[in-house]
Fold Endonuclease III.
Amino acid sequence: MPPKSASAKTGAADSVPRGTGESLLALKRRAGKINRQLAKAYPYAHAELDFRNPFELVVATVLSAQTTDVRVNQTTPALFARYPDARALAEANVAELETMIQSTGFFRAKSRSLISLATRIVDEYDGVVPGRLDDLVTLAGVGRKTANVVLGNAFGIPGITVDTHFIRLARRFGWTESKDPVQIESDVGALVAKAEWTMLSHRVVFHGRRVCHARKPACGACPVATLCPSYGEGETDPVKAKKLLKYELAPGNEELLARMLGDVSRAAEYRQEAQLLARQQSSGPTTGSAAGAGMGPAAPVSGRSTTRVADSL
Ligand code: SF4
């Protein structure tokens, strides 16, 4: 559900400042082109937390704060086997739960949040995760971003997930001038069709992790370079830029990329296999590793340290 922006409240959506000097119509057209181009580049973009139902996604997303999706995905199979639903989690032994989720960090606070949110789901929603943003954000540990992740990926309700990658790219694309996640959600929501919001979020985060890095964006190897007003902010030499690509796009990961493109429905599975292989091949500790989404075997073992599903998410 989109937030109400100041402009929406005043009925002056056209006046939201973007700084590119384009009309709202031109901006919408360019946003649509970028979205379509990203869809072509990342047909396998997906939520990167493993889950089978809304309960599992809420829990996984709460766990993903300050750690990687990879780490969460390693933790949740045993967790969900032990606590398969909100009722079981509400009655969890705190010490046992803390031990099970210890590797995700901040395990005491996360344990408290999980037991609290599970108890509330049982007491207030008869054990069923609510499918409304207004209800979700009242659960312990669930903010607007988490709620949109759950709505978009577990309920099929379009939502824009604004994480650190999305903020950076939305600003580079000239879709917003704001740094405020709620305002960014509103600004981008005004440019892109609602039905596209969830997948747009995945695509933008995938692009941010692989190509449009915070420090050294690979402009010379970017599929939306001709549509981006920030082209040139990073490396423009195609050969040098290609070396900056990460995960399945990184040089040497062509086989993984081919597999992911060849069967997009199994892309997550292929990515996880590659992650497992990378871990097995790694001789060093994996703490803090694996920037969430889709790592290929050659991916660096340092990674995202902020929340996301798909960081993304
Ligand atoms: S052209 Fe450069 S700044 Fe723009 S999206 Fe591509 S990598 Fe990012």
Summary: The chain is about 50% helix and 0% strand.
